Amino acid sequence: MLKRIAAMTMAAALAAAAALSATAAKAGPTLDRIIKEKKMVVGVAPWNRFVLLNPKTGEYEGFIADDIRNFEQMTGIKVQFVNTTWSGLVAGLQAGQWDVVMSGLGATPERATAVAFTDPIGYLSSTAMVRADSPVQNFEDLDKAGNVVSVVTGTAAQQFAQRSFKNAKVTPLSDTAAAVLEVMQGRSTAYIGDSVSNALRAEERPTELRNVRFAPDKTEWTSMNHAVRYGDLDLVVFLNTYVRAMQLRGWYRSLADKWKLPPELATGPR
Q1: Between 27 and 159, the higher pLDDT residue
Q2: Strand partners, 122
Q3: Cα separation of 179 and 195, whole Å?
């Protein structure tokens, strides 16, 4: 009798283990299709030194573009780029136009109500881009009545500006070029963007633009992440396996060095 009970118990345990294994191995429809077809459609928005289409070569270049190619090589999954605007990234994801957003989208509580984020691949803080002859030196100089702050719709910088500026007027615009042009032509006092991009613009146009860093208690850090639909949480697990392995190997620091980006991109606030 005892032998029979033991045999039944063992059989039940093996059946449960097999069921659990089968459940754990089953991917959702999106990830299952990606793995079977060896193809993943990715939405990106133009971002200099991160993911930008070179019209001469027809290839995407930058920190994120290199990371995507490394992902392709390691997984055997071909990535199809779809170019869009920053404001269209989440809407396109939800509409099923692409499987993943891979444009360094910042993970914020506001965006988390719409999409699920992977672990970070980088970190940025918010700074102000002003004209080289501007008297603005800090956050307090900028947050005054009569000042106009331009931002790009759909970015973490827009959310930061709308939360933080109490006196300056925040004006959302469709793209970065338009927002920076507002500053250069004197219609905006400053453009609020990420610390890396603003530093690069100031470096490229030192006689026209200047990057103003805010005090630690006046700026806001955000992470750079991939994003998927909440129905594809298994895809987050899959992508995180890659991201965590690359973090441990120092891959993102090497990419920052290659593209002459500040070390804080890989390390974050300290």
Answers
A1: 159
A2: 224
A3: 15
